[in-house]
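Before going further, it is useful to explain how the protein records used in this thesis are read. An example of such a record is reproduced below.

***
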Amino acid sequence: MIIVDTHCHAGINWFEPVEIVLYQMNRNSVDKALLIQYWGNHHNQYLLECIQRFPGRFAAVVSVDISKPDALTTLEGLAKQSGVVGLRLKPDDRSPGDDPLAIWRKAGELGLPISCYVWNVNQTSDPEFHSLVAAAAGHHHCSRALGWGASGTS
């Protein structure tokens, strides 16, 4: 059985470096880990470097600055990076412009599950948002997105 830690943080200026995460993984027989970008940090280079330095051990959930006009293009570029398997958003994150749910839709188009910390199910009353989230929840299985197994049990 493959053991996966589905929510880890690593960094050089806030969280511990990836070598400490690896030490703890090895010590506790954890095979793989999903590195989650921490709130407010849109510089994903360290996570991408971790994936490259330790092939097969890590995948990443990245973050983009949704207030920037190139957020959708940035997400498309990140989605092409090996090991990027998701996007981190808050439930009330909205894109500027005509389509406030553009970043959510783009993640869906790219097949990227969204890591979303929901502290209140009724945080937003937007029915279109609820419909979008419900559709996404029915279409994604984390282990398949990670490429680490065929079912949700691995």
Q: What stands out?
A: Residues 127-139 form the longest helix (13 residues). Confidence is low (pLDDT under 50) at residues 138-145, 148-154.
